[in-house]
Amino acid sequence: FVGTWQQKPTLIRLGSSEMTQINYKALIEDAMLTMVKDILKKISKSGLPKNHHFLITFLSNSKGVIIPDWMKEKYPEKMTIIIRNWFENLDVTEKKFEISLNFNNTVERLTIPFNSLELFADPSVDFAISFNQATKMSDTESERSDKNTNKKKTTLNKKNENVIDLKNFKK
What we know:
With 171 residues, this protein is of the alpha+beta class. It has helices at 24-46, 69-74, 139-160; strands at residues 12-14, 17-19, 54-59, 78-83, 88-92, 96-103, 106-113, 117-122, 127-130. The longest helix is centred in the first third of the chain and has 23 residues, at 24-46. It starts with 11 loop residues before the first strand and ends in an 11-residue tail after the last helix.
């Protein structure tokens, strides 16, 4: 067989939308979240091995986060918890995890959705992964960003009104 072969691009239909590119960032993010879920499921059954401990930073104002009122006041945007020597009632589901931790000799129950995570780290083995917050930007922030972009375009267009294109005068 001689010649070249070209495959036509295939569109993958997901519901009513078409996917024309593979979103690798989203796939990596999903894989990392699955890894965190698996790790938390394992320690919920058998506890933390040796010196391992976790730092988990999450957006405390994210939908589905359930923390005591005093924590909401103290950490209105972001909070980091440490899972180390003592924790109990760690329940892990597909969308969230719940855990009881000790804060100043008071046991508090926290519910943390996985889509609110910003960082998962295990300093005992120098491991950390961060999650992309750009996709979690609020509507008002993205609207502000769009307005700023439109202002810049308008300013550039006004500046270009007085520019003469020299290509027209070349011989």
